[in-house]
Q: What sequence folds into this?
């Protein structure tokens, strides 16, 4: 068997795998003091973002924004609501849908978590030097 790559480090997929694992470790470390998983953080952050820009979003809108599976999103959001970090209310226009908003506790937790996540991102991606903007442009093409 022969690969088109001379080295595993020449494979963009393999490198993306390795980078993803390393970055996820950095995120777990940053979020541990806040008792949040990365998925929980992303869904809280997406909820906050959508609330600030469009008003209380539906769970489906949060899933679409975050790029997550709607069923998993619903389960995670339910757990966050159980922790009093967000509220889920029936949508007046659709009884099956839920509208979301952050509680004061959710906003407070998210403020601290965001600062730690952004610090971890800066530290992790510092290795890219001035190429971070090019990296972001390349990732946008793939997203």
A:
């Amino acid at each position: 068997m022969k690969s088109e790559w001379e080295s595993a480090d020449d494979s963009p997929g393999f490198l993306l795998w390795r980078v993803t694992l390393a970055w996820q470790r950095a995120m777990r470390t940053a979020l541990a003091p806040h008792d949040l998983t990365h998925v929980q953080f992303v869904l809280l952050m997406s909820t906050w973002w959508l609330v600030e820009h469009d008003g209380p979003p539906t769970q489906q809108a949060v899933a679409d924004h975050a790029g997550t599976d709607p069923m998993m999103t619903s389960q995670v959001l339910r757990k966050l609501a159980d922790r009093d970090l967000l509220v889920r209310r029936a949508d007046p226009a659709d009884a099956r849908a839920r509208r979301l908003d952050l509680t004061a506790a959710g906003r407070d937790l998210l403020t601290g978590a965001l600062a730690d996540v952004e610090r971890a991102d800066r530290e992790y991606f510092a290795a890219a030097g001035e190429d971070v903007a090019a990296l972001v442009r390349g990732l946008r093409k793939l997203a």
